[in-house]
Amino acid sequence: MQQTQQPHSVVLSNCPEHFSSFSVTTPLPASDTHVMYTASSGNLYALSARNGALLWCKKVSITGNFPCPGSCPAGPFMNFGEPAVVGGVAYVCASGYQGYMYAFRARDGSLLWSTKSNCATAPDPVMGNDVPLVYHNVVYAGSDALRTQDGKLLWSTPADTAFQALDDGVLYAAGEVKVYALNAKDGAIRWHYQIPNFAPVTAKLIAGNKRVYFGTESSADTTVQGGLYVLNSANGSLSWKVAMSYYGGVSLYKDLAYVSSGDHSLDARQANSGALRWRYKSASSAYNAATSANGVLYINIDGPYALNAATGKVIWHQSLGASQSVEFTPITIVDNVLYFARIGGDGKSTIYAMNAHTGAIYWQGSAPELQYIIPLTVI
Prior knowledge:
With about 375 residues, the chain is an all-beta fold. The chain is about 0% helix and about 50% strand. It is built from no helices and 36 strands. It has strands spanning about 10-15, 25, 35-40, 45-50, 55-65, 80, 85, 90-95, 100-105, 110-115, 135, 140, 145, 155, 160-165, 170-175, 180-185, 190-195, 200-210, 210-215, 225-230, 240-245, 245-255, 255-260, 265-270, 275-280, 290-295, 295-300, 305-310, 315, 325-330, 330-335, 335-345, 350-355, 360-370, 375-379. The N and C termini lie far apart (about 55 Å). This is Pyrrolo-quinoline quinone repeat domain-containing protein. InterPro entries: PQQ_b-propeller_rpt, PQQ_rpt_dom, Quinoprotein_ADH-like_sf, WD40/YVTN_repeat-like_dom_sf. Pfam families: PQQ_2.
């Protein structure tokens, strides 16, 4: 008997009440009221940054059935991406079966509005997701510009892109083999850059110091090598580039660009020319971008490293084990506390809060609910 296909709907609900508690070595001061946001398996979590306690959780799912003859792959699903929290509101994309943008009140998770969108979340939790960008009462997600008040669509660019950076009123977006600069006001394209050899963009594009930084993948047969490209943000011309087998990410601090790679190195390069200032060689590959604060560079390799940003000298290192199946999210630092997650080959995710000066662990926690979690947002 043929099964009747039911209408499909994307449904938002509260998560089950139960959530496993974390192991707290030294809780942060009671005055610490920062909130940590992350997502896993269709759930969006708000946790206390002081001790990892659950504050609220939302679940996005799909109703209806998807009949097919014989055996078929698992039905479609929805996943939350990495949120942007601005003005007491958490803006976040959920995608999979369809794309939706949600706006939640950050303190309690109450829904302010939701709307269909062409935003998309990345399949790799470490490479990151396209985080919504918020500027002058507009939230930019995917290739849509939405009004922050109610999610009304203001404009959408026809270019096959995803907004990834916003600097001085200009949006920078990555397509599969092109990079674009667009006016944030109306989406008009200012310039585009065709990537040589049609190499696909990998990791997250960033903008700063009047330049745009992005990485490309090497081809499967290695005939086309990937690397870091740096463009003039005014006209899209190529300023400089560096070839590498696997691009991990880039971050900016003062006049330096810090470039991590799968070539077991972290480079400090002059932002205006690409000239090498120093190089730190590691035993394992660096697959995410570094984070800088107060003259110190923090990066996860086989665990967090703290390096002098000017010289590359290691200040401290906390080993958490490395293998090809283990990944780390990029480090987020707030008020001299490092927050990040270690993701095992089975998807088990452990969140850490560490002292930025010493690497001492304040608390760490994992729960069955936390699988392949996305990078942490701490506000």
